[in-house]
Amino acid sequence: METHELLNRLEAIVDEAKTAIMATVDSAGCTHMRWMTPAVLKHRPGAIFAFSAPDAPKVEQVHAAGCAEWMFQTRDLRQIINVAGPARVLDNPALKSELMEVLGPRLIVFWKANLNADEFVVIETVIEEAILFEPMKGTRQTVRFD
């Protein structure tokens, strides 16, 4: 499978499911997972973006470990994509504005959990490797990104 094919499937899953699980590692090496609202941007292929409060534990974990893994799945679990790569925290006004257009309607839980937040940052994960698992077909394909 080519990288563009994997990215097309990933985008379709994100559009359908609207959420994914993000895993990070803290400074002690412990893994933490949480539901997030991700986005993929057509003009920035090969990356996953999500909003976070600047003081959230996951921001500290991204700073500490510099990597993240995501799990995306269709509602019927026919396709599951795990994505891993380096992650970083960005505070770029243009990117935040662009993501707000894409993610704004999906962020109900984010705003409820961060009632007093007037600031937010973006977590970017650059895809180094993706694994497409199709349980009903019994297939698993690994795609490496350059």
Give the SSE map.
Blueprint: H1 3-17, E1 20-25, E2 31-36, E3 38-39, E4 47-52, H2 57-65, E5 67-73, E6 80-90, H3 93-103, H4 108-113, E7 121-126, E8 129-134, E9 139-144
Antiparallel strand pairs: 1-2, 1-5, 3-4, 4-7, 5-6, 6-7, 6-8, 8-9
Short description:
By secondary structure, the protein is an alpha+beta fold.
How would you describe this structure in keywords?
nine-stranded antiparallel β-sheet, single chain, 9 strands, alpha+beta
Taking pLDDT < 50 over at least 5 consecutive residues as the criterion, the unreliable ranges are: none
**CA-to-CA gap between the ends?**
14 Å
Number of strands: 9
Global geometry: globular
Instruction: Give me the secondary-structure category.
Output: alpha+beta
Kindly describe this structure.
The protein has 146 residues and is α+β, with helices and mostly antiparallel strands. Helices cover 28% and strands 38% of the residues. Strands 1, 2, 3, 4, 5, 6, 7, 8 and 9 form a 9-stranded antiparallel beta sheet that branches. Strand 5 (67-73) and strand 6 (80-90) form a beta hairpin. The longest helix is centred in the first third of the chain and has 15 residues, at 3-17. The protein is globular, with a radius of gyration of 15 Å. The protein starts with a helix and ends with a strand. The mean pLDDT is 91.
